[in-house]
Structures are given as structure tokens and as C-alpha cells.
Amino acid sequence: MTMYTTHTLLPGHAPLLVSMPHVGTEIPLELQAHYVPRALGVEDTDWHLPRLYNFLSVLGASVLTPRFSRYVMDLNRPPDDAPMYPGASNTELCPTRFFTGDAIYQAGMEPDAAERLRRRVQYWQPYHDALSAELQRLRSQFGRVLLWDAHSIRSEIPWLFEGRLPDLNIGTAGGTSAHAAIAAAVLQACEASSQVSTAVNGRFKGGFITRHYGRPAEHVHAVQLEMCQSLYMQEEVPFVYDEERAARIQPLLKKMVASALAACVNSYE
Question: CA–CA separation, 166 vs 169, rounded Å?
């Protein structure tokens, strides 16, 4: 394991890199007074994903995680801050609102253009440099690589989407970020279970990481999974991990990742 100032990379021994760009929970001390007190609870974190994905070492995966909260810098947004979902509510590269639509910052304390650039250089760039380098290493070693971008979210957030989300939301940028056989393998794993609902390229098609790094013609395949937190934890404060619920979903989650990896290695040529 290599721990850097802004992120941690655990190199693996299989053509699989799992990125968890929203699991960071720290806000730098020098920035904390800029936020409303509520923001220091970082409620929109993708809570407990490293614990939920505790099977990744068995699969030989490399794992990349950030130290700092998405409230400081959203690592899954493009550097030019272009909206991921035009026409819908979007979170920004330097988010200014909670998922409820309320302001994150004290009035007049939102980051200006210079501060956004500083954060991009200090937080965004190192994560993406690490991600790109690890993908290159794995592709050079194995000839192909699967990037699994792991996320979780509350099942109901009216500001972002109507109604309740499906339990498991698989995104391949409309089929452009991964070979169809890989998406099919993930979906087949889900369909074998009656305990969950599933969507493919629905409300969540994949963020910047999936869309930017997924290049099937170059044998780099990217899949995003946005899963409802109700599957494994309490969705309200204090966001407690639920061992019983997690134990029910983990075998399926492992099967999804393993199936995608097998399809990447064997199925698309």
C-alpha cells in the first residue's frame, strides 16, 4: 500500500482497478470555517465502501481511494466543470450545494476561480495521475484492464432525481466505456438475484472517470456502479454500517465485479 498526501493506492496483481472517488471524509482545517457547520458531517459521502468491498484483495484488484471529501473537490467531475447530466441538477467540481440543494458554504465564502484552480491542482490532479498510471501499468502487464468505479448514494434524493433509485445502477456511458460483453456479464449476475432491482445506463450512466478512461478500442474498459446505501447501511445520520444487510449484498457485489473481470479477460475478443 502506498499512502500519498491526498490518496491511497493499493496495487494489485490482476487486470482490475477499483476507484472509490467519493469515500474521503476529511476537510482541511484551513477550509473548515468556510463551510456551514452541517457540511463538516460530510453527509454526501459514499460511506463504508472499502469495508463493503472487502473481497477485492481476493480478486487481486488494485484499489484507489482519496483522503478528502467530495465537498473539497469532486474527483468524478471533468476539470472544466462541464455538467455530467445537462438539464438535470448537477454537483460541481467544487460542490457548493448538498444533495438536498442547500448551500454548503457560508455566504460569500464559496471558492472563487483561483481557489478552484488551486484545489484542482492539489487534490484532483494527483488522484487522476495515480489512476492513469495504474491503468497504464495494468494494461502493459495484462494487455487489457477493467476499471470499476464504485459509488453509493441515498436511495431517495429529490433534488437530484425523481422517486426511488433502483438498487444497483450500472453505467457504461451508454455502452461506450466498456465492451458489451462486460456490461452483459454484470447484468446477468444481477438478474440471477431476486433481492435487488437493477438499471443499466439509466439516471447514472457514469461520471467523468467512467467516460474519460473507458476506451474499449484500447482495451481499457470502465464500469460505474452506483448502489443504494439502503442495501448495506443506515441512510440517515449517523450513517451506521449494517452488518446483516451488508452480508446479504456482498456475495452479489463480488459476483458482479468478478463477472466483469472474467468478461474483460476472456469474452470480448
Answer: 6
